[in-house]
Design brief:
By secondary structure, this protein is α+β, with helices and mostly antiparallel strands. The chain has two domains: about 80 residues, no CATH class; about 160 residues, Trna Endonuclease, Chain: A, domain 1 (3-Layer(aba) Sandwich). The chain is built from seven helices and 14 strands. Strands 5-14-13-12-10-9-6 form a seven-stranded mixed beta sheet, with helices on both faces. Strands 1-3-2 form a three-stranded antiparallel beta sheet. Helix 1 packs across helix 2. It starts with a helix and ends with a strand.
């Protein structure tokens, strides 16, 4: 539970707990957050970017957890607080790992240097594991880094037509094929759950930009194993309609 004291101060300053969350979400701006936390000494206790980073259920401040709330950005410098569970579980993959033989006919020695999710993701793509998992040999790397969303609306429970405009997103890698876009969120740890926004906002963003079918993957490297989960949305306008399509784990071996 990070930044609990800072968020206690923010909730108190704007009487947030007395807000009627059954009627609408509570909007809070970056300037309001700064003003309510300016008396704190540490940068981590008042930096908006840090205070609003709540990537897992457990990373939420105590006041969010105790009141079943979560936070979403809706515009550059604007956020909303909603009641409900805005997170998706990353389920364990119980099946035995599959041995995957790299399509490369040589060893990538540089891939051994370092210990980052980006490095492992690049190796999985270079070995053609991503193409094989998605059954699409046309996929090429075209998307990486931070970009801003176009405008779109979505629903979450009784909150209707939530409007998003120019929110910064970041995907670890995005691939385009003839018929589809594949977006990947990668971690280098054993993740239990993830805020749906990290998958949903890029999903909506690139569907609007390309008019192609968009697939969303979650990727992890643990030890020698590569884990891949594919998630979909039953209703593209419904934030919580996320569901697991398939999941596998692999060990990559050279030829």
């Amino acid at each position: 539970m990070k930044n609990s004291e800072s968020w206690e101060s923010i909730f108190k300053a704007y009487d947030i707990l007395n807000h009627d969350f059954t009627s609408k979400a509570f909007k809070v701006t970056a300037n309001q957050i700064k003003d309510a936390t300016k008396h704190f000494g540490k940068t981590s206790e008042k930096e908006v970017r840090i205070l609003c980073k709540q990537d897992s259920r457990e990373e939420r401040p105590k006041i969010f957890i105790d009141n079943d709330l979560f936070l979403l950005p809706v515009k550059n410098g604007e956020y909303i607080i909603l009641k409900g569970d805005g997170y998706a579980d990353i389920p364990p993959i119980g099946n035995k790992e599959e041995i995957y033989i790299s399509k490369l006919d040589f060893e990538l020695r540089s891939s051994r240097i370092g210990n980052s999710e980006m490095q492992y993701l690049d190796f999985a793509y270079a070995s053609s594991l991503i193409r094989t998992f998605m059954e699409d040999d046309t996929l090429v790397l075209t998307i990486r880094g931070r970009k801003y969303t176009p405008e779109f609306n979505f629903n979450f429970k009784h909150y209707k037509n939530i409007h998003v405009q120019s929110v910064q997103t970041e995907v670890d890698a995005g691939f385009e094929g003839k018929e589809q876009i594949v977006l990947i969120e990668a971690k280098n740890s054993s993740t239990q759950n993830i805020i749906i926004r990290q998958l949903y906002y890029p999903f909506r963003q690139w569907k609007i930009h390309t008019q192609k079918e968009v697939k969303t993957l979650f990727f992890e490297k643990r030890g020698e194993e590569y884990f891949i989960w594919e998630f979909g949305f039953e209703d593209e306008f419904d934030y919580e309609s996320i569901f697991l399509k398939k999941a596998k784990k692999f060990i990559i071996q050279n030829r």
